[in-house]
Amino acid sequence: ASEPEIREEFQTTEDKREVQYVFIERLKLRDRLVVTEKEIAEFMAKKENVTQAKQYYEQMKYEYRKPAKKKPVAKADPKKPEPPEVPEFYPYEEVQKKVVTNLLRDRRTQDLSKMAKDLSDEIFAKAKNSSLAEFKSLAKSKGFEVKASEKFNRNQDHLNGVGTVPDLIADAFKSDSPLAKESRLYPSGVNFIIARELKVFTPNDADFVKQKDALMKTITSRKSQQSYGDWMEDLKKKADISVNDQLAKADSEGGVE
User: What is the pTM of this model?
Assistant: First the structure.
């Protein structure tokens, strides 16, 4: 890796941004869907649904974990590390109603999606002309919290705790970024994020020398992977490959050792 390449890598990875955001997560809206006692009773009246509820309980068991027991404070013994905590769960019979309620809520994905979209549109519309303090108050009134994102660079396509948001990251690195002037709404899978208050963190040249060796290894590794990938693609194009149908069939049936 040449000096200019290392310098460019440093400038790219250390030129970072940060935003204030509120994350409207569809799953967290689940508890807002109303499931009636009649719906629960009608569901549990069918034997096959009882089986489904028990299977759902096993799949989502972490939601029915008992609170951790408080342990007496004792002096730590480095020679005798504490055994890992074994989680305890409420028996299915004790949380059956909650299990069925959550199962029925999860099946209403269209309702959840509409709720997430409507709520994000409402918050976004009111956030356009609001101060940061008003934005935080608005989000809190809807059951959400405004947070500061991690510092991210232009090579990323996702943010921790949010998910994939390539459009947000692209906007953040525009020379005249809209995020510096107003709130913006972005989809993130089935969820939504409203971002604003862009902060810019330019590279500190004093850190270049400290990171130079690590940056060189990163560039070299990337080049090596790219070279190998190109070689494999070229090999596939030049190779004369034929498939033995009998062996392929035997292999799929578990007959080839």
Answer: 0.68
